[in-house]
Amino acid sequence: MNKFESRYAQSPNEVKTMDTAALRENFLIENVFEPNQVNLTLSHFDRYIVGGAMPVDQKISLPNPDDLKAGYFLERRELGIINVGGAAIVTADGERFELSYKEALYIGQGTKEVSFESVDAAQPAKLYINSAPAHRQYPTKKVSKTDAEVVELGTPATANHRIINKLLVNSVLPTCQLQMGMTELKSGSVWNTMPAHTHDRRMEAYFYFEVPQGQSVCHFMGQPQETRHIWMQNDQAVISPNWSIHSGAGTSNYTFIWGMAGENLDYGDMDHCAITDLK
């Protein structure tokens, strides 16, 4: 059975009063993948959807939850997928796309039928999904790491040496508002998105993977002068409000996928926070 959950937006004043359990309930998505089903979480921050499809020994389809009040899931939405598991086949209105590990697929608004399957049940695909409202149709397109816009940032000295792969962004392909990419931390580096920033024009979601067994990532959120943290494990996602910083530090290096939506497609639209000003 597929799972769909809807979560209300929270203001900074509400988050100030939350204990650990409340923070995790409102922002952490613990179970992104479950065998042979699609799990989806709708955030009322920009009506962004975060989820995962994990076909094992059968083909599974993108559902159309009643809460969307749509004829089909992508009637008024666009969809981004990044494969973080075994080889996958995604079929969009009859067109088949093979996705290897860390390859991405953009599916445009108006696509009526989307299905997922694994090439090998012994190595099941894990298809991480983000979706945002869309105002027009853009072509469905596969994007591999060789197609990505790649940026190298940070240094070993500050433990944030990382490679940013901009996969589903407007410098690579047209989208309405959805943007997704993947940041890989080098060995010995643990900090992502540091110095931290906010952008009141967009919300964001982070998905952490390639976290070694027995290790964890501490995700930092909240207003720059009123930060909070959530401890996260491998294959988990977290919702980041537009008023919140979004940064993490792991007990080992790891990889994470960032996805965002909002008023613009300007990747550099950031209100930076000096490290020494964070509280």
In short:
Belongs to the KduI family. This protein has 279 residues and is mainly beta.
Written description of the protein model:
This protein has 279 residues and is mainly β. It has one domain (3-277): Jelly Rolls (Sandwich). The chain has helices spanning 12-16, 20-27, and strands at residues 3-7, 28-29, 38-43, 48-53, 60-61, 77-83, 88-92, 95-99, 104-107, 114-118, 127-133, 141-143, 149-153, 162-168, 179-185, 191-192, 197-198, 202-209, 217-223, 226-232, 236-240, 247-250, 255-262, 271-272. A 7-stranded mixed beta sheet has the order 1-3-4-11-6-9-12, with no helix packed on it. It has a 7-stranded antiparallel beta sheet with strand order 2-21-18-23-15-14-13. A 4-stranded antiparallel beta sheet has the order 5-10-7-8, with no helix packed on it. The longest helix has 8 residues, at 20-27.
Topology of this protein?
Layout: E1 3-7, H1 12-16, H2 20-27, E2 28-29, E3 38-43, E4 48-53, E5 60-61, E6 77-83, E7 88-92, E8 95-99, E9 104-107, E10 114-118, E11 127-133, E12 141-143, E13 149-153, E14 162-168, E15 179-185, E16 191-192, E17 197-198, E18 202-209, E19 217-223, E20 226-232, E21 236-240, E22 247-250, E23 255-262, E24 271-272
Parallel strand pairs: 1-3
Antiparallel strand pairs: 2-21, 3-4, 4-11, 5-10, 6-9, 6-11, 7-8, 7-10, 9-12, 13-14, 14-15, 15-23, 16-22, 17-24, 18-21, 18-23, 19-20, 19-22
